[in-house]
Write a structure and sequence with these properties.
The structure is a single chain. The chain is about 50% helix and about 10% strand. By secondary structure, it is of the alpha/beta class. The protein has a single domain, classed as TIM Barrel (Alpha-Beta Barrel), CATH 3.20.20. The chain has a seven-stranded parallel beta sheet. A two-stranded antiparallel sheet has the order 2-3. α9 crosses α11, α12 packs parallel to α13 and α14 runs parallel beside α16.
Length: about 350
């Protein structure tokens, strides 16, 4: 028996929809009291990610509360370096900490062998979610793009300047290319395993894409994404893939055309007119509410929701934030957002 295609994939491919699909990046997380309660019992952050029963529960929490049209797997982009044998940890209030890789010895310690087995709990979570989610809810898998993941691996954590990553790329081009090639292969394997376990849409997060310009952007953001998309499409031809080269401005169109993604997720700084007139004719657009407007709520939220849907609602469009939801977000504001978006009927033509 043929089942009806779900709302999110339908919107991504440009089908006529009776309402705009809605989900939020980081919709499972610290703004929810039920998440904070579970997190306190789970031990470390990676323990939470690698315990399928808990990761499944966290993923389901915002679906139960708000009825989003998609659930995104609760995990982290840094499970890939961990799977490649890099030491990764998370310290409360400080973010991720990794043993930095900046030379040939560090590269030699990385290995794709056994990564899928080490990350098996993640794929078990996907399988559980496939069974437990409401039938109309799309399951999104994800990974970090190679450039963004590489910066964490090289810097040893978050960075504002990416000094070590830039130096590595400039001073040891062969070594950096080796790392990026490994990350492309690892990312394809990780995403393929998620799809085989039940993920229906994939998002590729390149959170630090804006750190690169010109030839470096083409080489370390566009080219790896193109290889990942091509490899996944070869295995799963109908798989919708969303790319998020955050804060890349005018580079978005070239990224979309060159990589072959089905949609781009746009940050809150993207002008709506550019998204409508330049991007939407070529690719579906997802975004781009400022997470802090969601925190503010009230009239500011209503006004911005209307502006986004008025600008983008006639084309291929998914409502989302311009980046991840922030911990200080009142859950009642999220409920209001859902009501606002659901009340707006898509314009035709």
């Amino acid at each position: 028996m043929r089942t009806e295609e779900k709302l999110l994939p339908r919107a991504l491919r440009g089908a006529v929809v009776d309402r705009h699909p809605l989900w939020l990046m980081r919709q499972a997380g610290r703004y929810l009291p039920e998440y904070r309660e579970l997190r306190a019992k789970a031990g470390g952050f990676l323990d939470l990610c690698f315990t399928p029963a808990l990761a499944t529960e966290v993923t389901l929490q915002p679906i139960r509360r708000f009825g989003f049209d998609a659930a995104i797997l609760f995990s982290d982009i840094l499970v890939v370096p961990w799977g490649l044998n890099q030491k990764v940890g998370f310290q409360e209030g400080e973010g991720p900490k990794l043993d930095p890789i900046r030379d040939a010895a560090g590269l030699a310690a990385l290995s794709l062998d056994g990564m899928i087995e080490r990350l098996a709990p993640v794929y078990e979570t996907v399988g559980r979610l496939k069974q437990d989610l409401p039938p109309e809810t799309t399951l999104i898998g994800f990974a970090g793009a190679p450039w963004t993941v590489a910066t964490y691996m090289i810097e040893g954590g978050s960075s504002r300047t990416f000094e070590h990553s830039r130096r590595f790329a400039a001073e040891d081009k062969v070594g950096f290319e080796t790392l990026m090639a490994l990350l492309v292969e690892a990312t394809v394997a990780h995403l393929d395993a998620q799809v085989r376990a039940g993920a229906e849409v994939i998002q590729l997060f390149d959170s630090w894409a804006s750190a690169l310009e010109g030839e470096a952007f083409e080489r370390w953001v566009v080219a790896p994404a193109k290889r990942i998309v091509a490899a996944l499409k070869e295995k799963h031809p109908k798989l919708p893939i969303i790319g998020f080269p955050r804060a890349s401005g005018a580079h978005y169109l070239g990224y979309a055309k060159a990589t072959g993604v089905d949609a781009v997720s746009i940050d809150q700084d993207m002008p709506l007119a550019f998204a409508r007139d330049v991007l939407q004719p070529s690719v579906a657009v997802q975004g781009n509410l400022d997470p802090l407007v969601l925190v503010a709520g009230g009239q500011a939220l209503e006004t911005r929701v209307r502006a986004i849907t008025d600008a983008l609602g006639r084309g291929r469009f998914v409502f989302n934030l311009g980046h991840g939801i922030v911990p200080q977000t009142p859950p009642e504001h999220v409920a209001k957002l859902v009501d606002l978006v659901r009340a707006i009927k898509p314009a035709r033509g």
